[in-house]
Specification:
heterodimer, A: about 110 residues, mainly beta, five-stranded mixed sheet, four-stranded antiparallel sheet, B: about 110 residues, about 0% helix
């Protein structure tokens, strides 16, 4: 099963781009990379997902390396409201394909 | 459109008591999930239901039972609550289990004393 590795915490200045890395070196060819975030005391919020191509939506961009062993979530202009824990998730096979969350990266956006 | 709704939002139980957390989704999703989140930890999958009529264990199923009552509803039962089950519980749903976005409820805060 593909596991993910994320730094436990990161800081970013307001208005700057926040680049959150994730390693998933054992990812299989048909496994997706998902990003969620959780603002304190709220339910996790979906951000973006991808298989092998880079993706962009109104919230963020997802850059997946060509070998698919790592990815980066980019918040182009971070705001204070983006302070949250960000989870990088790869579909796990032995849980019936349900997503399992790790500890994520705690992003602090500072004024 | 309410999305995923959980009840109750807060509950205090005594050790050994039983209770059921209710969850309903109005997005016509096939798959539903129960997660728990302990302080400073990530989310851990307790049980999931890939489709109506099926349930499977996740990472931490011990001490819990689930029922997929119909396509909309998925309940989580604690038969004999223990202090180790003090946690925040999240219900979630998705169209399918493979490559589909999961949507979460707002959480149920459970304290077992």
């Amino acid at each position: 099963d593909a596991k993910t590795t994320q730094p436990p915490s990161m800081d970013c200045a307001e208005g700057r781009a926040a680049n959150l890395p994730c390693n998933h070196s054992t990812i299989s060819g048909n496994e997706y990379v998902y990003w969620y975030r959780q603002i304190h005391s709220q339910g996790p919020q979906y951000i973006i997902h991808g298989l092998k191509n880079n993706e962009t939506n109104e919230m963020a961009s997802l850059i997946i390396t060509e070998d698919r062993k790592s990815s980066t979530l980019i918040l182009p202009h971070a705001t204070l409201r983006d302070t949250a824990v960000y989870y990088c998730i790869v579909r796990v096979r032995n849980s019936g394909y349900a997503l399992n969350f790790g500890k994520g990266t705690s992003l602090l956006v500072t004024p | 459109n309410a999305g995923v709704t959980q009840t109750p939002k807060f509950q205090v139980l005594k050790t050994g008591q039983s209770m059921t957390l209710q969850c309903a989704q109005d997005m016509n999703h096939n798959s539903m999930y129960w997660y728990r989140q302990d302080p400073g930890m990530g989310l851990r999958l307790i049980y999931y239901s890939a489709s109506e009529g099926t349930t499977d264990k996740g990472e931490v199923p011990n001490g819990y039972n689930v029922s997929r009552l119909n396509k909309r509803e998925f309940s989580l039962r604690l038969e004999s609550a223990a202090p180790s089950q003090t946690s925040v519980y999240f219900c979630a749903s998705s169209q399918g289990v493979i490559g589909n976005t999961i949507y979460f409820g707002e959480g149920s805060w459970l304290t077992v004393v």
